[in-house]
Give the backbone structure.
Amino acid sequence: MRFVIQIVDNAHVDVEGATVGRIDKGYLVLAGMCEGDTRSVADKMVAKLLNLRIFKDETDRINLSVKDVGGQILLVSQFTLYADTRKGNRPNFISCMAPDEANELFEYVVERVRSEVEVVETGVFGAHMSVGLVNDGPFTVILDSADLKI
C-alpha cells in the first residue's frame, strides 16, 4: 500500500464537473493498493498516517499530527501509484490490486480514518477525477507499507 500525503490549505476532487469531496486544512492523500495488501497492512498504514507529526507547533517545529491540529483528510484512490516504469516507456500496472479488491480495501481505509478524524472526504473509486489543491509548504510525504517498521 502506498500513500502520497500532501499538507494542504484546501483541496477538492471533482467528477464530471461536480465536486464530490472538499476539505480545508489537512491532508490530501492519494492511496494505491497492490497485490498482497491486507486489512492488517491498512491498519498499520492508517496508524502511521494519523500519527505522523508533520504539522508545525507553536515554536515552528514539525511536531504535530493531523489529529493534533484538527485537520481534515481527502482520500483519493490512485492505482497509478504502482506504475512500474523500469522497462520501456509504457507503465506496467501488473502489481496493482484487482479493482474490486482494491475498492473494498480502500473503503476499509476510509472507514478506519473516519473513526479518528471528524472530516474525511473521498473521491469516487475508479472514476476519472480532477483533483485541485493548495499545497502548504509544499510538504509531501510518501508512505509505503514495504518500508514500515511497525
Notes: The domain at 2-139 is CATH 3.50.80.10 (D-tyrosyl-trna(Tyr) Deacylase; Chain: A;). The chain has a mean pLDDT of 95.
